[in-house]
Amino acid sequence: MSGLKLSQLFVYPIAGVQVVPVKKNASVPYIPPEIIRIILDLLRGDKKTLAACALVNHTFNLYATPILYHTVAFTFPHTFTLFVNATNDIKRRCSKMVRHLDLSSFSTCGLQKSSIETQNIVTPELLIHILRSFPELKAFS
Q: Which superkingdom does the taxonomy of this entry point to (predicted)?
């Protein structure tokens, strides 16, 4: 790896670590996919960083995306409605990665929604449709 340390390849600007300048003609060091997977798995709890990593290149995207979609949680009716109304193509690609669907924090607090209005948003039919949309789902809460 001639001069670059592995710790220098993954820089967190928020932590105040300096970015290592790379010459334009310098080749990108090879990192085995197994190492990338291990590093990204350590970021499981940091969705924002994982989303940024998914944009790095094809290999990072390949390993970061399933981690990002492993657990999908909805906390407000608005996000739930956005998901329900997403195009079928997006749902088809992402739904195979979801292992845990979490609606336990679903709340209408601050939205002036009554329980009757909430029942109109999350109907039993809609829940059944969503659950059928996740062929690899292992947990639902």
A: Eukaryota
Structure tokens at 131: 């659950």
End-to-end CA gap in the chain? 45
The string of DSSP codes covering 119-141 is HHHS-HHHHHHHHHT-TT--EE-
Q: CB of 101 within 8 A of CB of 140?
A: yes
pLDDT in tens, the chain (141 residues): 444 444 444 444 444 444 444 445 557 788 899 999 999 999 999 999 999 999 998 989 999 999 998 988 877 777 777 777 776 667 777 888 989 988 777 655 544 555 555 555 667 787 787 778 788 889 988
CA distance 47 to 70: 11
Alpha helices in the chain (DSSP H): 6-9, 33-42, 47-54, 58-69, 77-85, 88-95, 115-121, 124-132
- To the nearest 10°, the Cα dihedral for 119, 121, 126, 131? -90
Q: What is the largest CA-CA distance in the chain?
A: 64
